[in-house]
Amino acid sequence: IAPSRPLTAAGYPRGFKWGVSTSSYQIEGGHDADGRLPSIWDTRCRMQGKIANGDTGDVACDHYHRYPEDIALMKGLGLDVYRFSVAWPRVLPKGKGRVNQKGLDFYDRLIDGVLEAGIEPWLCLYHWDLPQALDDLGGWPARDSAGWFADYAALCCQRYGDRVKHWATFNEFAVFTLFGYCIDWSAPGITDREAHLKAIHHVNLAHGMGVDVIRDLVPGAVVGAVHNRQVVWPEKDTDADRRAAALLDAHWNKAFPDPQLLGHYPDLIAESIAPYVKAGDMAQICRRTDWFGLNHYGPIFAKDDPNATWGFHWGAAPDDADKSDIGWPIWPAAFRDELIGLTKTYKLPIYVTENGMGGNDKVDDKGEVNDATRIRYLTLYTDAMKEAIAAGADVRGYYVWSLLDNFEWGTGYQNRFGLVHVDYETQKRTAKASYAWYRDYIKAARAAE
Ligand code: GBH
């Protein structure tokens, strides 16, 4: 592959989009405000020992009430794009049936505010907060879930489609299905092969049906999906760990983009999933979308574990690897190679819909947060992205995870990913050094256009 378009002096194609990403359950709080009912994450947060420190998303960043201040922070960054998600249990408290107007109103206000700030809203329909009532009916392992999702998508399209043109069906298909139905790291925390396989297939079906709904109902829709992708390496150079890595790779990197964009499940999964695939399903799943959303942090490692659901488990990164403050490997070359590989495999414009670094940031005596390690990470990763673009990767935008420190799922509030620090006692927002760095980076990239 070769660079398809001329690049500016800053190394980006003209019109490259800069943004940040967030998700509903991680920032909104207001868990019982205005008619919202529990999601599977509210349930999980109430189970003993599932979330670090017993944290919950009940209040989170209280974004549900403080969104105007958060939009002002976005505006200060000079963003092109704000990627957020809608909480399904806010707009359809029981997942289907009765619509909650007050919940719908919240996203009206949010979208209008974002547009007024001159920022393009990118709406993701599902960032893991399935209404608990739908899990009670079987959740994703139930085939009906695809239809529930399509109906929910239609409601959002009808309501927001006049103002929102950029839509994503799901965030990180592989993470929430693998962690939710195979490894007990996400809601609903089931560890069962059959439930896992059914969830994979039904979520794929939901995606395909969702794409059709969005295209039918939103004039000029620009539709995509957000995939986590990162190279999987064996923890040890043994046959067993190499097998584990290959199987985790099939689940993590291919089980969703392959059927959605290439029309088939990866070889290592195809046979196990076949019993759940009905005639016409593969045709319903496979849709040429308009863009490919990539969430990428660093490589992952797999090890053989005969007691695990599929015989593989998470492995450890090598001791001598460069690591973030929360221990995740920092490996910009893997990001570069992922971007180049994606362009070759799926041949779609890529938006990096998440990239960023977790830390334990603290406000210092001067009232500042000097997150030099995050600035270093973002510098290394944007440099790697530019290398990929120069080598022909079709990357059109980059969205940092995340605007705010937030509820980091199983790790609670201890891992901070924000460009803005949040004091969870007072809800005070403090822009970190990385906030100013990103603002200036965007400005310089634009000036080079
Ligand atoms: C994303 O998930 C989510 O979309 C977002 O909600 C979340 O807040 C964000 O990332 C940050 O966590 O064990 O060292 O190899 C990311 C899913 C799962 C990414 C596990 C990397 C392994 C780190 N991730 N993970 S390591």
What is the approximate shape? globular
What percent of residues adopt helix (DSSP H or I)?
A: 40-55%
* Bound compounds: ligand GBH
Mean pLDDT over the residues:
98
Q: What's the number of extended β-strand segments?
A: 13
What string gives the helices and strands in order? EHHHEHHEHHEHHEEHHHHEEEHEHEEEH
Strand content: 5-15%
Rg on CA atoms, Å:
21 Å
The major beta sheet can be summarized as:
8 strands, parallel, barrel
Number of DSSP helical runs: 16
Low-confidence segments, given as residue ranges, are none
Q: What is the terminal-to-terminal distance?
A: 23 Å
- How do the strands line up in the largest sheet? 1-2-3-4-5-7-10-11
Structural class: alpha/beta
Write a structural description.
By secondary structure, this protein is α/β, with parallel strands linked by helices. The chain contains 16 helices and 13 strands. An eight-stranded parallel beta barrel has the order 1-2-3-4-5-7-10-11, surrounded by five helices. Helix 8 (173-181) packs antiparallel against helix 9. The model has no long low-confidence stretch (mean pLDDT 98). The structure holds ligand GBH.
